[in-house]
Amino acid sequence: MIHHLRHSLLAFLLCTAFADAMLAQSSTWRYTQAQAGVVDDVNAIMLADGGMMLMGDGGLVRLDVDGNILWQKNGADAVFVDMVERADGSFVALSYDGDGIRAQITLFDANGNVLRHMKRLDDIAPPAKENLVLLPDGGFATLEGLVTDDLWGTGRKVHCFDADGDLQWARFIEGGNPFGGVMTMYQNNYYCAGASDLFRLAADGSLVWDQYLLDPAVSVTDIEVFGNTIAFAYKSVLPPAAFGIGVMYDTGFPLGFYDFPTTIPGFEVNPSNAMLDLEVSADGLFLLAEHEFLGGGLPSVLFTCDPTFGNAKAYSLDGFMAPIHISARQDGTFAFAAVDQFNLSATVCKGVELDGCYPMTNATITERSFDEPSGNDIGSIGSTSTWTDLPFVLSNAAMVRTQRCASVGIPEQVVPRISVFPNPVRDQLQVEWAGTGNTAWRIMDGTGRVVRTGTLHGAHTLIDLGGIASGPYALGIGPQVMGVSQILRFVVAE
Fold first, then answer.
1. Considering its fold, how many domains does the chain have in total?
2. What value, to the nearest 5°, has the Cα angle with vertex 222 and ends 220 and 225?
3. Looking at the predicted structure, is the pLDDT value of residue 433 above 60?
4. Are residues 22 and 118 in the same domain?
5. CB under 8 Å to 241, separation ≥6 — which residues?
6. What per-residue confidence (pLDDT) applies to 38?
7. Are 148 and 285 part of one and the same domain?
8. Residue 24 and residue 315 in contact, taking contact as beta carbons nearer than 8 Å
9. How far is CA 152 from the centre of its chain?
10. Which of 323, 344, 435, 488 has the CA that lies 20 to 30 A from 46?
11. How much is the average pLDDT of 86-102?
């Protein structure tokens, strides 16, 4: 009964806090680059002018509202993991160095010119994703994991800087699991998470509360403000495998845990190997992006749902295996980026209808029972750090926009709809395609090996699967349909 009451309370608190969802429309741009750089790993943030900043392994790409490249830079000694845009149009970026062991902070102007670059030389402390928050006065704060303190051992560290990048204070967080960590800010307090630890720091870095999640045995991978509550993405570290979203009050008291599906054919998720990114849109929609660490063989999946965890959908991101990260603006627009080898895609959307570009299916989210968390004896201790100013040079890059597709509400280059059935299938796969003429198709197994090819003839094609072993497969249509390749997942049954 207590969980049903919490769910009803959650629905009341959050449904009254957000407006109705907007008319859905989305557009996806794809880019190619002949060298390693931003496409090796990718993050995206939405900007005040409606454009995007893409960042990754040594690269930055700034896009306008229509996906055109305004400028792009490459740097050999920085893997960018987070960035914030300030009111004056300048940026603060968090990265780790090319050796992957030390945190760096870079201040840029609106055109990508370096204003200041600082590096931690006194600690081996690589940052994880999304642990850079912007303060109301233009200052900023960072969170790093695996910091080694001579007195307290290994833990995490929070640094607070003024708008010029000068360090104001540092706090060493001892206790708990020091691996990774994410951070968000709500009402001038810092809410941090990593592994099974959740803790809140006051504006001066002092500890307000800490929690250790006992049940489910989870690892927290992202944390966001959700109305007047805090939401976090989690995954199971012990069987049974699960992943989803938890919601709690700012006091640390949990409201609920909600498991997302893992076994939808064509939209499978391996929670033990999943990287998760959580965002909450201005109209209260949950956006949960998932990908397998180091491209474990399953396509990336984007899940969306309303504030009550209903109306859930899953989108398969066309086999893009590398990280995807979500960013949202106050006008209800959100964006994400994904990579596959040397191809990059950036998608911007209002609402949640993405099926003009990506295969979609309905999903069911299940509320799970949980034990109350307990205190974890985490301590916040005043500390010192040395950030050293160093020269940092970014060179011009040469990424080229190559493709675009659009879904509901944008009239140009809408991809012809395609469907396959039955799924799972035994002997023959029926393909229905809204395009015209003839186009090539190919079937690929879980390793990407092409096992069969052929040609679509008109609206209906029957593909003989005789001799193909049971298991998951992908049907690729193209290589391009109106400039955009399409991939659908299906399962051959035994």
1. 2
2. 120
3. yes
4. yes
5. 262, 270, 271, 272
6. 44
7. yes
8. no
9. 33
10. 488
11. 84
Pair (296, 378) in one structural domain: yes
How far apart are alpha carbons 493 and 469 in whole angstroms? 9
Q: Is the pLDDT of residue 343 over 90?
A: no
Quick check: is 197 in a domain? yes
What is the DSSP code string of 155-200? EEEEEEE-TTS-EEEEEEEESS--S--EEEEETTEEEEEEBTEEEE
Q: What is the DSSP letter of 39?
A: G
The two most distant CA atoms of the chain are separated, in Å, by: 72
Tokens describing residue 178: 């020091």
Q: Are 37 and 78 in contact (CB under 8 A)?
A: no
Identify whether residues 441 and 312 lie together within a single domain: no
Of 78-82, 177-181, 427-431, the range with the lowest mean pLDDT is 177-181
**Mean per-residue pLDDT of the chain:** 76
* Residue the block writes with tokens 């859930």: 312
Question: What's the CATH number where 98 sits?
Answer: 2.130.10.10
Strands 313-316 and 325-328: unpaired
Q: How far is it, in rounded angstroms, from Cα 79 to Cα 75?
A: 9
pLDDT of residue 481: 35
Q: Which residues pair with 368 in a beta bridge?
A: 257
Q: Is residue 463 scored above 90 in pLDDT?
A: yes
* 441 and 369, same domain (yes or no): no
The mean pLDDT value for 10-36 works out to 48
Residue 227 is which amino acid? G
Highest mean pLDDT among 141-145, 235-239, 442-446: 141-145
Domain that holds residue 432: 416-492
Radius of gyration of the chain (CA): 23
pLDDT at 23 over 50: no
Query: 């997942």: which residue's tokens?
Result: 489
DSSP single-letter state for residue 331: T
Quickly list DSSP for 407-426.
-TT--SSBPPPEEEESSSBS
* Residues in contact with 2: Cβ distance below 8 Å, sequence separation at least 6, in sequence order: none
Q: Measured between alpha carbons, how far is 188 from 12 in angstroms, rounded to an integer?
A: 25
Amino acid identity at 98 = G
Q: Same structural domain for residues 158 and 54?
A: yes
Chain-centroid distance, C-alpha 58: 19
pLDDT of residue 124: 59
Distance between CA atoms of residues 294 and 339, nearest Å:
12
Q: Which of 107-121, 122-136, 158-172, 441-455 is the least confident region?
A: 122-136
pLDDT at 86 over 90: yes
* Strands, E assignment, 249-332: 254-259, 274-280, 286-292, 301-305, 313-316, 325-328
